[in-house]
C-alpha cells in the first residue's frame, strides 16, 4: 500500500518537475499550490479550470476577430491577448504566457498572419497544458484515493 | 533628441520654404509679364518717336518734290515756291509765321507772288483760299497743281502717324514678332511647369533656373532687336544725308547749267536784234558775211557754249530766183547723210519758203547757202521760233561736222518791233530771218562741271525728255551707282522742250561703318552679357543642386549618427544582460570549493567581466547621450552625504596609492538639492577616479563644492578655501603641501558665470584638484573627445578607454553646466564643472542623523593642523555634526603657547598626524589638563590619520595618549560613530525594525480586488485570504467605482490597470472624484481616501508615474510576491 503511494508520489513529483523543466509551468504555479490548504482543497484545480475556460473563450473570440482577412479589430484582439497573458501568468502557465508575449508584439504591429500563427500556438499550448495538468490532477486524485498526501514539490 | 529635432526641423523649414517659393514663383511670373509689357511699350514708344521725326523729313521731301513740279512746269523762282510751301506746311503744323516775299522782276512777272500773310491758327481751307486768291492771275493748271499739292499735304500731315504705321509695316511686324516670341516662350515653360507640379520640391530650383533663362533669353532678344533697329535707324540717316547731298549737288549743277544757257541764249537773242537792226534796218546792209563772221568770232567769248551762229534769211519761193541771183549761189538742200561738203549739196527742191543761211560764223561757214528749212529739225524749229517770238530749241541731234550731240537754238528776226501780245499771224508776217546757234551739249556740260566743286563724286547725265517715250541722252555716261539717282529739271527757256539732269554718285555708297560699329558693339556686349549671365545662371543652378545634395547628405549623416548611437545603446544593453549572468555565475563559482589556481582563474575572469561591464556601461551612457535618450532625474538628495559616499568608496584606492582625499562643501550650499544624484556621482567619481589614476604616491585629491554666486562675488566671501583659491595662481598652501594648479584659471572661461539663474535654482561649482602628472599641453584640446586619451601611451600606462571625460562633459552639459580644467604637467590638474540644481526649500535636511547631531551641539573643539586648508576641511566636517565653536591652531606648540585662552573648556581636540609630535604633545597635554582641572571631563584627544598601518595604529592607541584615531577622509557617519564612542558612554543604539508579519498586517482588512480576468481574481483572492484579509472581488472598473463610492468599509483596493470598458486609471480617477465630493459634503475630520494599488504585470517607470498621476497610491506587480506586497501595503496599514 505504502509502496503504491510512494510510487505514485514519486511519479507525481517527477511529473511535476518535468512540467517545470519543460517550461510548461513556472514559479507562480507553485505559489498557487502553496495557497491551497485545507480550507480550499481544490483551489489549484479550480483556478486552472477557470483559466482553461477563460482560454477557450478568449481564443474563440480572437479567432473570430482574425477570421476576416481585412478590417481586423486589433484592439479587441489586443485586449484578449492581454487578458490571456494576465491569467496565464497568474496560474504560472509559462509557455502560454510566452506565446502571449510574442502574440502581443504581433498585435502591436498589426501583423495578421503573425497573430493567426500565435493564436494557433496558444491554442496548442493551452490544450497541451490542459492534458498535462489533467494528468497531474489525475495523479493527485490517485494519491489521495490511495490514502497518501500530495507531496510538496520544491522546484528550486 | 536634439538631433531628431534638427532632423524634423529642416522638413518644417522645407515646407515653409516651399510655400514661400510658391509665392515667389507667382510673383516672378507677374514680374515676367510686366517686364514683357514694359519692353513692348518702350519699343512702341521709341518707334513712334522715330516715325514722327521721320514723317517730318518725308513731308519735307514731299514738299521738295512738289516744289520740283512747280519748278519744272512754271519756272517759278525757288524762293517764291519755298515761301509758298512753307506757308502750307506751317499752316498745317499750326504755327504762326509771317512771310513777305517779293517776286523777282524778270520774264515770269505774271507768276509773281506777293504775299503777306498771317495765318495764326488758321484752318487749312482758309490758307488754301488765300493762296487761290493770290494765284487767281496765274494759269488754272498751276492752281490745280497747287491745290492738288495742298490736298496731298493735308492728307499726309493730318494722318501722319497712322499713315506712317501703315506704311512701315516692318515695324509692326517686328513688335508683333517680339510679342509672339515672348508669349510662346512663356506658354511653353508654363506648360512645363504644370507638368512638373507633381514633383515640386525637386523641380523648384530647376524652375527657378528656367525662369531666369527665359528672362535672359528675352533680354538678349530685346538687345538684338535694339541693335538691329539702331543699325537700321543710323543707316537710314546716312542714306538720307547722302540723298540730300546728291540733291543739293544736282540742283546746283542744274541751276548753273541753266543760268549759263540762259545767258548764252540772251546773247544769241541780242545777236538777232543786231542782225535785224544792222542788216535789215539799214539799206544797204551794214553786215555782210565777212563782217558777221568777224563779229561773231570776236564775240564768241560771250557765248561760250555755242559752237557757232548762223543767220538765215526768210525767202519765199517767188523771191528765190532774185535771191539766188543777188547772192550768186543757189539755195542748197541740207543733206543729212553727208554734211561736210557744202558744195556738193544739191540745190534745194522747190518749196514755199526757204531759209538759206547768208551769214555764218567761221566755225559753221559751210552752212552758208544751205536751206535750213530743208532739215527736218531746223524747219520745225524755225516755224516754232517765228510763231512764238522766243528762242526755240531743237531736240538733240548729231551736229554737222562735229560728231557731238547738239541742239540748235533758233530766234526769229522780225522786221518790225512787235508788241508782246502780237498774234502768231502777225509774227509770221513780220518774220524776215532766223538766227540759229548750235550748242555742243557735251562740251557745254563738261565745261560747266569743270568749274564746280567735287566734280569727281557725282556723274551727271542730261536728257531731253520732250518726248517721254523716247528720252534722248544729251550728255553723260552710264557709270556710277545706279541705285541712287536724283533728277533735276532744266529749263532752257523753251517751254516746248523739257530737259532733265540726272545725277548720281560715281561710287557705290561706302560701307556704313558709322551705322554698323555702335550697334555691332551693342550686339557684342549683349551677347557677352548674355553669356556671362548664362554662366552665372548655370553656376547658380549647380550651386543650388550642390547645396541640395549637401543637405541630403547631412540629413543622412545625422540619421546615421543617431542610428549608430541607437545601435550602440541597444547592443550595449543586450551585452550587459548576459554579462550579468556570466558575472553571477562566476561569483557562484568562486563560492564553491576551488583550489588556488582555479580561484585565480575565476577571479581574473570576474575582474575582467566587471571591467567589461563598466566599459559597456560607459559606452551605453555615451550612446544614450548621443542619441539623446539620456534624461536626468530630478530628485532631492543630500549633496554632502553623496560626497561622503563617494569619498568612502574611493578612499580605499586613494589610500593604496598614498594619496590624501578630502571633501569640502561650502556652508552656502543647501543641505538638500534637486537633481540627478546618480549622474552627479558619476561625474565626480570619474574625475576623482582619473585623479587617483594619474597621481603617483604623493599629494592629495581635493573635492570642493561652492556656489557660483560665491565665486561671482569673491570679496564678500568668508570661505577660507575660496579665499585661498582666489589669492594666487599657484600655491603650495594646499591640502597636502604639494603644489597644485589653481582652479580659477578654468573658471574664467565659464560662460555661466556671467548669466544669472532664476531664484529657485542654484548653480554649483565643483572642483577636483589633484597633484598628478598633469595633462600635456598638446593633448589638452582633445581631452573631452570620446576615446581620446592624452596620448596613446596613456592607455598603456594607466589603462582606461578615455570615454569617461567625454561622458562627464555631456552629463555636465545636460545639467546646463560647463566643464573645464587647468593643468600643468608635473604639477597637477584641476577640473572644475558647474551644474544647475533645484532648490528644495521644503526639506531642510534628510533626517538621518538628527538625534546624534543634537547630542553634539554646544561642544567646543580645537583643531591642530599644520595645513590651513586641511584644518578648514576638518572644521567643515565638525560643523556638519553640529559642533559650532571650533578653533584652529597650526601646531601643538602654538596651541600651547599662543592660544592658551582658547584651551579653556575644550571638549575635543583633533590633531592631525602631520602635526603630531610627542614632545610637544606632552607639553600641550599638560597645559590642557591644567586648564581643565576644575572640570570633571578632560577634553578628548582625537588623532586624524590619512594612512596608518595597523601596527602604527595600535601603537598610538596603546600609548594612551589619544582617545581615538580617526581615519581620513572624514565622513559624517564615521565621525558621529567615533564621537559617540568617545564622548558618550559607549552605548550603541541598535535600531532594528523587525518586519511584521504580513498576516497580522492584513488581518481583518476589507480589500477590494478589481480584475476582469477571473483567474487573476481568484488567485489574488486566494493570496490575500491567506493573510486573513476579507476579500471582495469585482470584475470591472464600473463595479469597482460603485463599490468604492463612499461611505464604504474597504480598507484598500487592488486594481487591475487594463480592463475593458473602464480601465484602472479611469476607475481610480472616478473614485477619487467621488471621495472629493464626499469630503466636501460632509466636512468631517475623517477624509475619505481609500488606498488604491495598481496591479500590473509590467512595471515600467512610465506606468508607475501614470498611476501616481491619476491618484493611485502605489502598485504591486502581478503575480503577487510576499515582500513586495508587504512593503506596499505596510505603508497604509502600519499606522
TrEMBL record, chain A:
Coiled-coil residue spans: none
Matches recorded under Pfam families: Hpt
Main subcellular localisation: cytoplasm
Positions bearing Phosphohistidine: 82
InterPro entries in the record: AHP1-5/YPD1 (IPR045871), HPT_dom_sf (IPR036641), Sig_transdc_His_kin_Hpt_dom (IPR008207)
Annotated ranges, domain HPt: 40-147
Annotated keywords: Acetylation, Cytokinin signaling pathway, Cytoplasm, Nucleus, Phosphoprotein, Two-component regulatory system
GO cellular component: cytosol; nucleus
Signal peptide span: none
GO molecular function: histidine phosphotransfer kinase activity; protein histidine kinase binding
UniProt keyword annotation of Translocase present: no
Biological process, per Gene Ontology: cytokinin-activated signaling pathway; phosphorelay signal transduction system
UniProt subcellular location: Cytoplasm, Cytosol; Nucleus
Domain commentary: Histidine-containing phosphotransfer domain (HPt) contains an active histidine that mediates the phosphotransfer.
Record's function text: Functions as a two-component phosphorelay mediators between cytokinin sensor histidine kinases and response regulators (B-type ARRs). Plays an important role in propagating cytokinin signal transduction.
Protein name, entry field: Histidine-containing phosphotransfer protein
Organism whose genome encodes this protein: Eruca vesicaria subsp. sativa
TrEMBL record, chain B:
EC annotation from Swiss-Prot or TrEMBL: 2.7.13.3
Gene Ontology BP terms: cellular response to oxygen-containing compound; cellular response to stress; regulation of meristem development; regulation of seed germination; regulation of shoot system development; response to osmotic stress; response to water deprivation
Keywords of this entry: Coiled coil, Developmental protein, Endoplasmic reticulum, Kinase, Membrane, Phosphoprotein, Transferase, Transmembrane, Transmembrane helix
A GO cellular-component term linked to this record: endoplasmic reticulum membrane
Transmembrane regions listed in the UniProt entry: 30-53, 170-188, 215-233, 511-533
Primary subcellular site in the record, as a coarse category: endoplasmic reticulum
GO MF annotation: an example: protein histidine kinase activity
Entry-annotated residues carrying 4-aspartylphosphate: 912, 1056
Limits of the Response regulatory domain: 860-983, 1006-1133
Key word Hydrolase present: no
Coiled coil stretches, renumbered: 533-560
Domain Histidine kinase: 570-834
SUPFAM superfamilies, alphabetized: ATPase domain of HSP90 chaperone/DNA topoisomerase II/histidine kinase (SSF55874), CheY-like (SSF52172), Homodimeric domain of signal transducing histidine kinase (SSF47384)
Record's bilayer topology term: Multi-pass membrane protein
Annotated compartments: Endoplasmic reticulum membrane
Superkingdom, taxonomy of origin: Eukaryota
Residues annotated as domain CHASE: 283-502
Catalytic reaction(s) noted: ATP + protein L-histidine = ADP + protein N-phospho-L-histidine
InterPro entries associated with the record: 2C_system_His_kinase (IPR050956), CHASE_dom (IPR006189), CHASE_sf (IPR042240), CheY-like_superfamily (IPR011006), HATPase_C_sf (IPR036890), HATPase_dom (IPR003594), His_kinase_dom (IPR005467), HisK_dim/P_dom (IPR003661)
The protein's name in its UniProt record: histidine kinase
Organism in which the protein naturally occurs: Eruca vesicaria subsp. sativa (Garden rocket)
Amino acid at each position: 500500500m505504502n509502496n503504491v503511494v510512494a510510487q505514485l508520489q514519486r511519479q507525481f513529483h517527477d511529473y511535476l518537475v518535468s512540467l517545470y523543466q519543460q517550461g510548461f509551468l513556472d514559479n507562480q504555479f507553485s505559489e498557487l499550490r502553496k495557497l491551497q490548504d485545507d480550507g480550499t482543497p481544490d483551489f489549484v484545480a479550480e483556478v486552472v479550470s477557470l483559466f482553461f475556460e477563460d482560454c477557450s473563450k478568449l481564443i474563440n473570440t480572437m479567432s473570430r476577430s482574425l477570421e476576416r482577412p481585412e478590417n481586423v479589430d486589433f484592439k479587441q484582439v489586443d485586449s484578449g491577448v492581454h487578458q490571456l497573458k494576465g491569467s496565464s501568468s497568474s496560474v504560472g502557465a509559462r509557455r502560454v504566457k510566452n506565446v502571449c508575449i510574442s502574440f502581443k508584439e504581433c498585435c502591436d504591429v498589426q501583423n495578421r498572419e503573425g497573430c493567426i500563427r500565435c493564436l494557433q500556438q496558444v491554442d496548442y499550448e493551452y490544450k497541451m497544458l490542459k492534458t498535462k495538468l489533467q494528468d497531474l490532477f489525475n495523479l493527485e486524485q490517485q494519491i489521495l484515493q490511495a490514502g497518501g498526501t500530495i507531496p510538496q514539490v520544491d522546484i528550486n | 533628441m536634439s538631433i531628431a529635432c534638427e532632423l524634423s526641423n529642416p522638413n518644417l523649414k522645407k515646407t515653409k520654404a516651399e510655400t514661400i517659393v510658391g509665392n515667389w514663383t507667382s510673383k516672378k511670373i507677374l514680374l515676367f509679364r510686366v517686364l514683357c509689357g514694359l519692353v513692348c511699350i518702350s519699343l512702341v514708344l521709341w518707334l513712334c518717336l522715330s516715325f514722327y521725326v521721320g514723317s517730318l523729313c518725308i513731308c519735307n521731301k514731299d514738299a521738295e518734290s512738289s516744289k520740283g513740279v512747280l519748278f519744272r512746269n512754271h519756272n517759278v523762282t525757288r524762293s517764291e515756291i519755298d515761301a509758298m510751301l512753307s506757308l502750307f506746311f506751317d499752316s498745317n503744323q499750326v504755327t504762326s509765321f509771317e512771310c513777305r516775299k517779293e517776286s523777282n522782276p524778270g520774264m515770269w512777272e505774271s507768276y509773281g507772288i506777293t504775299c503777306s500773310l498771317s495765318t495764326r491758327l488758321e484752318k487749312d481751307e482758309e490758307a488754301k483760299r488765300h493762296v487761290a486768291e493770290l494765284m487767281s492771275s496765274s494759269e488754272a493748271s498751276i492752281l490745280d497743281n497747287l491745290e492738288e499739292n495742298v490736298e496731298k499735304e493735308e492728307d499726309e500731315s493730318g494722318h501722319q502717324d497712322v499713315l506712317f504705321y501703315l506704311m512701315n509695316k516692318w515695324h509692326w511686324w517686328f513688335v508683333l514678332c517680339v510679342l509672339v516670341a515672348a508669349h510662346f516662350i512663356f506658354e511653353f515653360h508654363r506648360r512645363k511647369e504644370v507638368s512638373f507640379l507633381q514633383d515640386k520640391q525637386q523641380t523648384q530650383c530647376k524652375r527657378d533656373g528656367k525662369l531666369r533663362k527665359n528672362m535672359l533669353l528675352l533680354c538678349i532678344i530685346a538687345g538684338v532687336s535694339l541693335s538691329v533697329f539702331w543699325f537700321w535707324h543710323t543707316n537710314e540717316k546716312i542714306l538720307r544725308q547722302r540723298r540730300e547731298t546728291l540733291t543739293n549737288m544736282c540742283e546746283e549743277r542744274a541751276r548753273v547749267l541753266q543760268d549759263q544757257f540762259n545767258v548764252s541764249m540772251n546773247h544769241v537773242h541780242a545777236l538777232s536784234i543786231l542782225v535785224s537792226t544792222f542788216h535789215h534796218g539799214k539799206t544797204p546792209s551794214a553786215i555782210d558775211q565777212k563782217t558777221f563772221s568777224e563779229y561773231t568770232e570776236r564775240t564768241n567769248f560771250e557765248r561760250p557754249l555755242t559752237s557757232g551762229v548762223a543767220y538765215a534769211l526768210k525767202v519765199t519761193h517767188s523771191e528765190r530766183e532774185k535771191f539766188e541771183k543777188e547772192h550768186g549761189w543757189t539755195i542748197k538742200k541740207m543733206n543729212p547723210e553727208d554734211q561736210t561738203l557744202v558744195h556738193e549739196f544739191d540745190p534745194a527742191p522747190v518749196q514755199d519758203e526757204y531759209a538759206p543761211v547768208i551769214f555764218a560764223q567761221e566755225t559753221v561757214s559751210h552752212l552758208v547757202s544751205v536751206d535750213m528749212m530743208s532739215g527736218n529739225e531746223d524747219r520745225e524749229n524755225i516755224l516754232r521760233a517765228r510763231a512764238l517770238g522766243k528762242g526755240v530749241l531743237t531736240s538733240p541731234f548729231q551736229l554737222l561736222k562735229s560728231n557731238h550731240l547738239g541742239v540748235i537754238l533758233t530766234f526769229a528776226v522780225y522786221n518790225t518791233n512787235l508788241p508782246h501780245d502780237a498774234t502768231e499771224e502777225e509774227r509770221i508776217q513780220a518774220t524776215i530771218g532766223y538766227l540759229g546757234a548750235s550748242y555742243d551739249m557735251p562740251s557745254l556740260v563738261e565745261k560747266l562741271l569743270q568749274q564746280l566743286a567735287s566734280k569727281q563724286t557725282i556723274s551727271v547725265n542730261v536728257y531731253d525728255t520732250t518726248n517721254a517715250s523716247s528720252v534722248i541722252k544729251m550728255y553723260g555716261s552710264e557709270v556710277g551707282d545706279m541705285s541712287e539717282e536724283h533728277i533735276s529739271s532744266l529749263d532752257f527757256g523753251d517751254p516746248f522742250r523739257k530737259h532733265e539732269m540726272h545725277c548720281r554718285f560715281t561710287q557705290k555708297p561706302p560701307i556704313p561703318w558709322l551705322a554698323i560699329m555702335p550697334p555691332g558693339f551693342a550686339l557684342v556686349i549683349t551677347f557677352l552679357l548674355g553669356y556671362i549671365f548664362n554662366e552665372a545662371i548655370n553656376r547658380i543652378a549647380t550651386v543650388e543642386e550642390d547645396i541640395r545634395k549637401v543637405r541630403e547628405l547631412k540629413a543622412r549623416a545625422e540619421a546615421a549618427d543617431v542610428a549608430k548611437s541607437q545601435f550602440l545603446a541597444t547592443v550595449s544593453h543586450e551585452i550587459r544582460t548576459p554579462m550579468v549572468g556570466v558575472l553571477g555565475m562566476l561569483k557562484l563559482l568562486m563560492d564553491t570549493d576551488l583550489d588556488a589556481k582555479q580561484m585565480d582563474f575565476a577571479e581574473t575572469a570576474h575582474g575582467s567581466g566587471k571591467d567589461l561591464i563598466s566599459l559597456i556601461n560607459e559606452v551605453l551612457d555615451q550612446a544614450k547621450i548621443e542619441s539623446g535618450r539620456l534624461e536626468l532625474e530630478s530628485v532631492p538628495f543630500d549633496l554632502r552625504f553623496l560626497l561622503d559616499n563617494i569619498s568612502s568608496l574611493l578612499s580605499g584606492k586613494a589610500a593604496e596609492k598614498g594619496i590624501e582625499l578630502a571633501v569640502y562643501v561650502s556652508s552656502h550650499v543647501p543641505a538638500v538639492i534637486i537633481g540627478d544624484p546618480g549622474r552627479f556621482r558619476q561625474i565626480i567619481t570619474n574625475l576623482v577616479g582619473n585623479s587617483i589614476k594619474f597621481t603617483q604616491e604623493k599629494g592629495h585629491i581635493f573635492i570642493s563644492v561652492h556656489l557660483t554666486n560665491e565665486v561671482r562675488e569673491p570679496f564678500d566671501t568668508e570661505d577660507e578655501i575660496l579665499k585661498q583659491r582666489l589669492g594666487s595662481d599657484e600655491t603650495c598652501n594646499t591640502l597636502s603641501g604639494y603644489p597644485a594648479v589653481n582652479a580659477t584659471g578654468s573658471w574664467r572661461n565659464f560662460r555661466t558665470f556671467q548669466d544669472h539663474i532664476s531664484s529657485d535654482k542654484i548653480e554649483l561649482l565643483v572642483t577636483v584638484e589633484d597633484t598628478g602628472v598633469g595633462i600635456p599641453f598638446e593633448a589638452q584640446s582633445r581631452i573631452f573627445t570620446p576615446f581620446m586619451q592624452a596620448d596613446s601611451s596613456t592607455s598603456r600606462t594607466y589603462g582606461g578607454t578615455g570615454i569617461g571625460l567625454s561622458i562627464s562633459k555631456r552629463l555636465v552639459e545636460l545639467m546646463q553646466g560647463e566643464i573645464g580644467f587647468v593643468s600643468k604637467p608635473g604639477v597637477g590638474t584641476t577640473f572644475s564643472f558647474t551644474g544647475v540644481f533645484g532648490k528644495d526649500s521644503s526639506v531642510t535636511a534628510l533626517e538621518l542623523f538628527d538625534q546624534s547631531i543634537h547630542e553634539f551641539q554646544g561642544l567646543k573643539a580645537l583643531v591642530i593642523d599644520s595645513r590651513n586648508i586641511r584644518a578648514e576641511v576638518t572644521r567643515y566636517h565638525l560643523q556638519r555634526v553640529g559642533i559650532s565653536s571650533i578653533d584652529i591652531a597650526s601646531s601643538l606648540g602654538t596651541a600651547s603657547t599662543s592660544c592658551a585662552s582658547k584651551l579653556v573648556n575644550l571638549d575635543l581636540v583633533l590633531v592631525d598626524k602631520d602635526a603630531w609630535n610627542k614632545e610637544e604633545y606632552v607639553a600641550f597635554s599638560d597645559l590642557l589638563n591644567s586648564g581643565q582641572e576644575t572640570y570633571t571631563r578632560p577634553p578628548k584627544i582625537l588623532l586624524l590619520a590619512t594612512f596608518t598601518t595597523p601596527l602604527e595604529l595600535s601603537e598610538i592607541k596603546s600609548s594612551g595618549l589619544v582617545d581615538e584615531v580617526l581615519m581620513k577622509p572624514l565622513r559624517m557617519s564615521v565621525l558621529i560613530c567615533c564621537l559617540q564612542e568617545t564622548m558618550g558612554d559607549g552605548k550603541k543604539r541598535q535600531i532594528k525594525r523587525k518586519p511584521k508579519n504580513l498576516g497580522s498586517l492584513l488581518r481583518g482588512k476589507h480589500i477590494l480586488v478589481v480584475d476582469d480576468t477571473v483567474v487573476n481574481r481568484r488567485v489574488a483572492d486566494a493570496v490575500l485570504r491567506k493573510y486573513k484579509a476579507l476579500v471582495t472581488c469585482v470584475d470591472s472598473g464600473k463595479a469597482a467605482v460603485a463599490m468604492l463610492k463612499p461611505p464604504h468599509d474597504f480598507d484598500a483596493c487592488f486594481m487591475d490597470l487594463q480592463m475593458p470598458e473602464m480601465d484602472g486609471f479611469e476607475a481610480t480617477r472616478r473614485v477619487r472624484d467621488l471621495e472629493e465630493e464626499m469630503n466636501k459634503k460632509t466636512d468631517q475630520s475623517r477624509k475619505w481616501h481609500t488606498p488604491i494599488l495598481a496591479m500590473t504585470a509590467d512595471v515600467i517607470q512610465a506606468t508607475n508615474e501614470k498611476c501616481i498621476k491619476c491618484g493611485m497610491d502605489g502598485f504591486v506587480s502581478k503575480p503577487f510576491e510576499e515582500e513586495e506586497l508587504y512593503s506596499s501595503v505596510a505603508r497604509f496599514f502600519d499606522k
